[in-house]
Automatic annotation (TrEMBL):
InterPro entries per record: Ald_DH/histidinol_DH, Ald_DH_C, Ald_DH_CS_CYS, Ald_DH_N, Aldehyde_DH_dom
Any Pfam family: Aldedh
PROSITE patterns found in the cross-reference section: ALDEHYDE_DEHYDR_CYS
Full protein name: Aldehyde Dehydrogenase
Lineage: Bacteria, Pseudomonadati, Pseudomonadota, Betaproteobacteria, Neisseriales
Species of provenance: Pseudogulbenkiania ferrooxidans 2002
Domain Aldehyde dehydrogenase as annotated: residue spans: 7-456
Keywords per UniProt: Oxidoreductase
Family, per entry: Belongs to the aldehyde dehydrogenase family.
One Gene Ontology term of the molecular function aspect: oxidoreductase activity, acting on the aldehyde or oxo group of donors, NAD or NADP as acceptor
Keyword Manganese tagged: no
């Protein structure tokens, strides 16, 4: 019998949606159905038809944007207008994947041999188990699911147990869409350590595409590769913002507030740790304080103009404990910081004069806390090289040579130079280095993640 799980509205803490958790037998049935759909249906559907099917999902997201945005906002605590933007962003990813479906070509080496032909054919990976987190359910799924489908794979989606609403709507609509044969897209609801684990272990699954924390991702990688599966994993980040002495300080300050506190700071690419050259550190602090007050004018947690709430009480408690643990090492809260709030609310918090070795800097904070460390610009590269994560970095300088040096040196997947941290393009691949993951998603070669070449010699 299935257990009922309940999500909670982060704004109120009240129960939001209840849904049945998949049983071990259902995991087996669903994965088997996906395998049948792959071999007997979707694999043989021409890519032009797959493209049409993907476009119909993009149209669905645009037509029912309000409904999807409301579900996303209720589960995650995002403001509605932010959720609307994410639904539109997700639709853009489905459209881009549809375009890619029609451009995939295999290779023919017509001159490698004087007789016959040497060529490659792309073979879809098979059944993809897609496991996503709670902070950006629709977007993280849209960065993967349409590309897997475009390549000819079938998908079994496992949303986070904390945020199911928008993805439940999506899969339900796709199940009723005749362009997707039964079993091509299915969903499994439930806890990660039960349902997610069973999906990773299931022998009918060929590949795991995962987005989530580094600890979970590493455990999944070992379990999946031990059963011969391919893995693509985008994991946590602990990202820096570099403020060189010649940076446009007011612009950079507004960007740090926008990027550091996006999604209440619960974003893998949040620019959390500012490194600022001491020659401009006081001026920088004044600009940052002003930007903070402009963005959060009410200065009261839990109000309409405030930062979005933390996903759960437990997550907020973790953040409060982290701040307390860092207190002995030292920091100075910038005026306008709110070190607590009602219910699940907390922040924004900007901590200035955070020492390099503060515990706050050693792990992914994943909350509305931005740290500022005053350190000479020539030490920035070594500090970044010391970071076990490699997901995102934000560089602010007027000097092309400094920007180029930073870009060339870092082993980091996504780099913004004097750029709006909230802007990104589906045309650019995403993924991390080191503790931030393996593989790449999106971009012009996105379908390569979900297919493999077969090499053929014909004489
Ligand atoms: P999480 O790792 O706890 O959970 C992610 C997903 O994995 C959930 O669906 C969960 O149910 C499932 N899961 C948990 N244990 C599992 C197991 N043993 N086997 C299979 N599945 C399991 O992460 P979270 O708390 O949901 O999300 C926050 C984390 O996600 C942060 O670390 C953040 O940086 C990361 N994240 C990364 C990106 C990115 O693109 N790099 C994007 C968003 C979030």
């Amino acid at each position: 019998m299935s257990v009922l799980l309940t999500t909670h509205d982060p704004r109120t803490g009240l129960p939001a949606v209840s849904y049945p958790c998949a049983t071990p037998e259902q995991v087996v049935q669903i994965c088997r159905r996906a395998r049948d759909a792959f071999f007997n249906q979707w694999r043989a559907v021409p890519s032009t038809e797959r493209a049409t099917a993907l476009l119909s999902v993009a149209a669905l997201l645009r037509d029912r944007l309000e409904e999807f945005a409301a579900a996303e906002a209720r589960d995650t605590g995002k403001p509605l207008d932010v959720a609307r933007g994410e639904v539109a962003g997700a639709a853009g990813l489905w459209e881009y994947a549809a375009a890619l479906a029609r451009t995939e070509h295999s290779e023919c080496l017509s001159t490698a041999t004087t007789q016959g032909l040497a060529l490659t054919l792309r073979e879809p990976m098979g059944v993809v188990g897609l496991i996503v987190p709670w902070n950006y359910p629709l977007i993280t799924a849209a960065e993967r699911m349409p590309f897997a489908l475009a390549a000819g794979c079938c998908v079994v989606l496992k949303p986070s147990e904390l945020a199911v609403g928008s993805l439940a709507l999506l899969v339900e609509a796709m199940a009723n869409n005749p362009l997707f044969p039964t079993g091509v897209v299915q969903v499994l609801f439930g806890q990660g350590d039960a349902v997610g684990r069973a999906l990773v272990a299931n022998p009918d699954v060929d590949m795991i595409a995962f987005v989530g924390s580094t600890a979970t991702g590493r455990a999944i990688e070992s379990a999946a590769t031990a059963t011969g599966k391919r893995v693509s994993a985008e994991l946590g980040g602990n990202n820096h913002v570099l403020i060189y002495p010649d940076a446009d300080l007011p612009r950079a300050a507004r960007a740090v507030v926008a990027g550091g506190f996006r999604n209440g700071g619960q974003a893998c690419i949040a620019g959390t740790h500012v490194l600022v050259d001491p020659s401009v550190a006081d001026e920088w602090a004044a600009h940052l304080e002003q930007a903070l007050r402009e963005r959060f004018p009410v200065g009261e947690a839990g109000t309409v103009a405030s930062i979005q709430p933390m996903i759960s009480a437990a997550h907020k408690q973790r953040l409060l404990a982290l701040i307390e643990q860092a207190r002995p090492a030292g920091f100075v809260p910038l005026p306008g910081s709110l070190l607590d709030g009602p219910g699940n609310f907390l922040g924004p918090v900007v901590l200035d004069r955070v020492p390099l070795h503060s515990p706050l800097r050693q792990q992914e904070i994943f909350g509305p806390v931005v740290t500022v460390t005053r350190v000479e610009a020539d030490k920035f590269p070594a500090i970044l090289a010391d970071n076990q994560y490699g997901l995102a970095v934000y560089v602010w300088t007027a000097a092309t040579s400094a920007a180029l040096a930073a870009i060339r040196q870092v082993r980091i997947g996504r780099i913004w130079v004097n750029a709006d941290p909230e802007f990104w393009l589906p045309e650019l691949p995403v993924g991390g280095f080191a503790a931030s993951g393996v593989g790449r998603e999106g971009g012009a070669k996105a379908l390569d993640t979900y297919s493999l070449p077969k090499s053929v010699l014909i004489f």
